[in-house]
Structures are given as C-alpha cells and as structure tokens.
Design goal:
This protein is an alpha+beta fold and about 240 residues long. The protein has 2 domains: about 1-70, Leucyl/phenylalanyl-tRNA-protein transferase, N-terminal domain (Alpha-Beta Plaits); about 70-225, Aminopeptidase, CATH 3.40.630. It is built from 7 helices and 13 strands. It has helices spanning about 40-50, 85-90, 100-110, 125-135, 175-190, 200-205, 215-225; strands spanning about 1-5, 10, 15, 35, 55, 65, 70-75, 95-100, 140-145, 150-160, 160-170, 195-200, 210. The strands form 3 sheets. The protein has a 7-stranded mixed sheet with strand order 8-9-10-11-12-7-13, with helices on both faces. Strands 3-4-6-5 form a 4-stranded mixed sheet, with helices on one face. The longest helix has 15 residues, at about 175-190. The chain is globular.
Length: about 240
C-alpha cells in the first residue's frame, strides 16, 4: 500500500502478527498513515498509544494505523467556555458519571449519525477491542444524563497523564460538550498534561483544542507516559460545574 503526499510516494508497511513494533511516527507523512495490518490486541493498542499511533479504518479494510501531523490537543486549563454554554452548565440540568455505562457509550458512538459521515469507523472489532481495554482498566467513558437518561458521552484511553479521546456522541444539544468539559476539569485536577483529540476539527478548536506539531506532541507524550496511570475503573470520580 502507498500514500501520496507532496508528490512523493511513501511505502506503508504491513505489521507482523508476531510482534508489536511500529515504524517511527516521526517519519510518517503529514497525512499520518503509518502501517497496516496486525491486530487489535490490548498489548498492541497500548503500545501504539504510547508511540502516538491510533487505529482508524472502515469495515472491510485492513487495520490502518495513523499518526498525523499536526496533532490536535486540549490542555485541560484551556477549555473555552462561551457564554451560552456557561448558562447550560449553570442550569445544572445535566449530571455526569464516569465508567458506569461504557458499553452504551461506545455503542452510541458507533451508531449515532454525524453530518458528512456515511458509515462509522467504530466497527465491531473496534468495539470489542476497546471494551476489552475498559475491562482491563485502560478504557474509560464519561456519561451525561438528563432526567435520568443517558443523552451524551465520550470514551477514550488513559495512560500516564495523557487521555486519548476516541469518540463522543450527543442525543440532545450540548451533551457531548458537557462530557468533554467534565473530563477536562477532572483530568486537570488530577495533573493530566493533555487530552489528545487526534485530528483537527472546527468543533474541537471551538472548545479550546490547539494544533500542535507532531514532533512536539511526541516529545510531550514521551514524558507523560512515564507518569502514574489512573488504572482501573473511575466509578468513584465525580464532577459538578464550578465557576
């Protein structure tokens, strides 16, 4: 397989089934496609995240591994609060839990329609792999409730003092933003360095995420993964909006 960037051909190697090594992400094209194949074992996935690499592919395709340049990061103390969203938070109509409905969150993320997206990249094998990581203490969800019903949330992977966001959903306006604000607040209080939002979107930029050169991201990642991981379920984490 090959990718085209700046009129150069880049060879995209297959991964071995027998080890978890990846090519150096610093040498990838800006598009970020780094390798294909391998598997979605927990060992390989965690090794990938520690290297700044994540899987993203459509059903029927081989597993594709990415490390794009630039990267999109949210620093917890830089979440942008617009006046209209501040009013939503002040209303107190939403409540938030952690790691209590991971299965439902990832299911909604895989099925809720998004404008401009014909099919979901959260294929059954991805659901199975990340559910396994949740059960093993690395995958986490934030759930947003309205009148006792799950109406929004997000999920991702935590390692060291980095959170790697994977996907979010909303069934009502502002629900996913509440999940992201809650996550940002609690991770900031616990000394997290950043939330990895992967690729640039206007929505995430609007919430305060910043475009960062891949090399700078990888340097920061090398430091943060050496810090203590909040391993296990986050059932007892709590959040309420504070001015």
């Amino acid at each position: 397989m090959a990718s085209m960037n700046d009129e150069e051909n880049y060879y995209i190697p297959p991964l071995s089934k027998y080890d978890s090594n990846f090519p150096d992400p610093r040498l990838a094209s800006d598009e970020g496609l780094l390798a294909y194949g391998g598997d979605l074992s927990s060992h390989r996935l965690l090794f990938a995240y520690k290297k700044g690499i994540f899987p993203w592919y459509a059903e029927g395709d081989p597993i594709l591994w990415w490390s794009p340049n630039p990267r999109l990061l949210l620093y917890p103390d830089k979440f942008k609060l617009r006046k209209s969203f501040r009013r939503v938070l002040r209303s107190g109509k939403f409540s938030v839990t952690f790691d209590k409905h991971f299965d439902e969150v990832i299911s909604y993320c895989s099925t809720v329609y998004r404008e401009g997206q014909e099919t979901s990249w959260i294929v059954p094998d991805i659901v199975e792999a990340y559910t396994r990581l949740h059960e093993e203490g690395f995958g986490h969800s934030v759930e947003v409730h309205l009148d006792g019903k799950l109406v929004g949330g997000l999920y991702g992977i935590a390692f060291g003092k980095a959170f790697f966001g994977e996907s979010m959903f909303s069934l009502v306006p502002d629900a996913s933003k509440v999940a992201f604000k809650a996550l940002s607040d609690v991770l900031g209080d616990r000394g997290y360095d950043f939330i990895d939002c992967q690729m640039k979107t206007d929505h995430m930029i609007g919430l305060g995420a910043e475009v960062i050169d891949r090399d700078i991201f990888l340097d920061a990642l090398n430091l943060t993964i050496e810090k203590e991981t909040d391993f296990g379920k986050w059932h007892d984490w709590h959040w309420k909006y504070k001015e």
